[in-house]
Every structure is written in C-alpha cells, then in structure tokens.
Design a protein that fits this description.
This is Phage holin family protein. Keywords: Membrane, Transmembrane, Transmembrane helix. This protein is mainly α and about 140 residues long. The protein has one domain. Helix 1 runs antiparallel to helix 2. The longest helix is centred in the middle third of the chain and has 67 residues.
Amino acid sequence: MPWGGAYLVIEENPPADDRPVTGTAGIADDVSDDSIGGRLSRLVDSARSYADAELDRQKVRAGLVAVAIRQVAILIGMAAMLTFATTLALMVGLILALQDVVGGPGVATVIVIVGALLIAVGLILVAKAKIVALKEALKP
C-alpha cells in the first residue's frame, strides 16, 4: 500500500456497550471510569502526551534556528571575503594613483601601507578603550 500499509477497519456491528469509542492515542479507552484514580491516570497520560508534543515542537524550532544561524554565518563569511577583496583593490588603486604624484611605485606602496597600519592601530586603540570601559562598568 502506498501510504505505509495503514488502513481503516470499519466494523459492521459496533460494540454493544454504551462506552464512547475513542481513537485518540494516549487517552484511556475506558472513559466510564469516573474514580479519582482513573481521572488522575488520564490526566497524567494527557500531560505526558502534551510534554512529548511540546518537546517535539521545541526540537523542530531548534533545528530551524540552527539552519538559520548556519545560513547567516555563511553570508557573513562571504561578506567578509568581499570586504577584504574590496579593501585590497582600493589599496592597489591608491598605489597606482599615488605613484605618479610621489615619484614611483615603491614610495606609493610605503605611503599606503603606513596609512593602513595607522588606521589599524587607531581601530585597535578604540577597541581597547571600549574593553576597558566595559570592565569598569562590570566591576562589582
């Protein structure tokens, strides 16, 4: 059978007793048991079914979040590579533009490298200041 072999059996002569027929998994078939123990047993079964369903739901949500985080990480990695390539192209362009002004490609290269290193040192100093400020704010 294409749907996994499951099929529905319909009886021509239903049960003669007055019990309602239930097909819900996890709920006791004997609903005529109105004792406290029977009701508590059904309550526990229902709670377990609910907990299992909630656990499955949370597993699906965690899977969706994991896939989304993976996609975001890939996109950030691609953006970082493009940013690096763009910065490299900008530096090569600066070297080519400056070589006519300063008298050669060697001098232009030194100027661009020193400028880039000064910018990098400035960014590191700003980051260090932020870390120090954060440590001061988090002191007890």
